[in-house]
Write a structure and sequence with these properties.
globular; alpha/beta; 6-stranded parallel beta sheet; 7 helices; about 180 residues
Length: about 180
């Protein structure tokens, strides 16, 4: 990367947080930067971005490190915390490994909200970020401690959504 990296947060109750991060990854890859997206609450081969990113490897790598199913529906289990801790450790290794220019922690804010990882550990990760790394954190419920350390914070706000009428997520559009 030819400039100092920044910390960006995409949060809020609206649609588009992961999509904005994927768009940033796509743009970075187009300029020759290597991107790693670690997904805290998503299982392998469950979202459209997983399939699309395979065509862009090795410029964009997505590592889904969660279990199948929506955590709000099935509830948190000890395995979810173990998987989230493993994802955070993977992020630490990647940040100092020198291979990536951009690291995206998809749904990390949600993982903190559900108590799967601590906000203190996320803050430590942010504070230890090498200055050349662009770090993006996504997910609802970004904590003030996380927001205060970011350079860019964007809130996606829902005005209206078909979910409110009981229409579920659509393959290729919402996942």
């Amino acid at each position: 990367m030819n400039s100092t990296g920044k910390v960006q947060i995409f949060t809020g109750d609206g649609k588009g947080k992961t999509t904005a991060a994927v768009g940033s990854a796509f743009r970075a890859a187009g300029r020759g930067l290597k991107v790693l997206m670690i997904q805290f609450l998503k299982a392998p081969d469950t979202s459209g971005e997983h399939f699309a990113a395979k065509a862009l490897e090795p410029m964009i790598t997505i590592k889904p490190m969660g279990r199948k199913g929506f955590i709000r529906r099935r509830g948190c289990e000890p395995l979810d915390a173990v998987m989230a801790e493993t994802a955070l450790e993977e992020a630490k290794k990647a940040m100092f490994g020198g291979e990536y220019d951009m690291i995206i922690l998809d749904e990390v804010n949600y993982a903190v909200h559900f108590g799967l990882i601590s906000v203190e550990d996320v803050v430590k990760l942010m504070d230890s970020r090498p200055e050349n790394i662009e770090l993006i954190l996504t997910g609802r419920y970004a904590r003030p401690e996380v927001i205060s350390r970011a350079d860019v914070v964007l809130e996606m706000k829902k005005i209206k959504h078909h979910y409110d009428k009981g229409i579920g997520a659509r393959e290729g559009i919402e996942y």
